Amino acid sequence: MQTKLILIDGNAILHRAFHALPSNLKSKRGEPVNAVYGFVAILINLVTAQNPTHIAVCFDTPVETLRKAQYVGYQATRPRLQSDLSSQFELTYKVLKAMNIPIYKKERYEADDCIGTIVHQCVGLVDEVVIVTGDRDILQLVNDKNKVQVYMPVQGINKAKLYNEKEVFDRMGVKASQIIDYKGLAGDSSDNYPGVPGIGPGTATKLLRQYKTLEDIYKDISNIPEKISKKLALGAESAVMSKNLATIMVDVPITFNLEDSGKWSLNSQKVLDEFAEIGFKTLTARVKQLPLI
Question: What is the four-CA torsion angle of 139, 56, 122, 182, rounded to 10 degrees?
Answer without folding.
Answer: 10
